[in-house]
């Protein structure tokens, strides 16, 4: 049985049934989905009770729950116990409990209201300063299907959904150990959103877990509507462009993170799982790297690293070379670039800025538009605008190629939020290349390296897998992917802490 002591006398469930009913009706006035049902029982039906629930949050019949309660009281209502008193009811339920539907007994009126809002049915009995709460079947949610944000080629095809308990069940079905712990808390005065974080006891770093719990305790009564709301409480540097947590909709990815000592966070009403801490090298890996053969997985890893470099540096390198260092460009290629830029009225920086703006605008339009027309608009828009810009002498063909290749490279990265970080960093690097050339690029690269070196997530260095430098570790599970049997024999070390 679950008991919760009230914080003040005003929160106590009243012994008078009419008082409890008036308080319920006052709180839920103008709520058409509130259902109250009066009941009479005992000798001569002289005892009263009422049940209350929100029909939009439940899918069961309240009659079965009330009958179960009356069935438990029936031995006391027969024969010598026909003169039932409120004290008898209290002693019986607190001593024996209710035999069906796994109920809980509440002595706080505020807690009873919260349980109603969570989809439970609460029964108040005349003369008893407690209430009985049953968990009723909830509303139907989206069925488990394939991930929407993470396409699957190899591996499980099931995805998390908006129902928190279903998601936890999916995780437990893949990781069957009592060391998998889930802790729950609620946040939000109005939303009262249930938040769960999980970890693998004995694998997670105790200092990381303690720091995570400290950060979660600072949330208080903030209205948390999505898992991403919690990111700013977890990250150390709120204004860093680099993501410090990962997101997934795949239970196998979340379980793999738990086995590596990560902490996962789930929020009721959202399908995404937040994985923290998120380290730099982890944004280049996917679960499918371990489902495919070593040679192919290693090739894809290398391709992603090249895509990262292209997405970050290609426009700024083109601006620096074409403006300040044309001698570094092969003569034939330089003549071709000069020929295409002959009648362009803008310098390379302005030209790149205009085309990057067009590309970002098309990308956002393709995301926000309805799916059937979003992809068509982005593809057709890119072709039409690119061709029109070349014919109007606003941009050169080589610049269109540079911008398009940069955008495609950002899409090749597994984590979307890492691609967003590169979109942010690309523009300062372009400005440095336009003002100081190669020297400006070196300053930009040095500042980025300095920032990620100092960055920490839950006390763990962001570059912990790269520093201290271990060539064997880089070859084993970053630049390349060693065979699975070798990875299992030499598991990944815990994050380095100073």
From TrEMBL:
Give the transmembrane ranges.
Answer: 303-324, 344-362, 374-392, 398-417, 429-452
Q: Which GO terms describe its cellular component?
A: membrane
Mind telling me which InterPro entries this protein's record contains?
A: Spore_Ger (IPR004995), UPF0353/GerABKA_families (IPR050768)
Q: One Pfam family from the UniProt entry?
A: GerA
| Domain of life per record | Bacteria
Q: Which UniProt keywords apply?
A: Membrane, Transmembrane, Transmembrane helix
Would the keyword Transmembrane helix be found if you checked this record's keyword annotation? Answer: yes
Tell me, what is an example of a GO biological process annotation in this record? spore germination
- Family, similarity comment: Belongs to the GerABKA family.
Matching entries from PANTHER family are given as:
LEUCINE ZIPPER PROTEIN 4, SPORE GERMINATION PROTEIN
Protein name per its UniProtKB record:
Spore germination protein
Which species? Paenibacillus contaminans
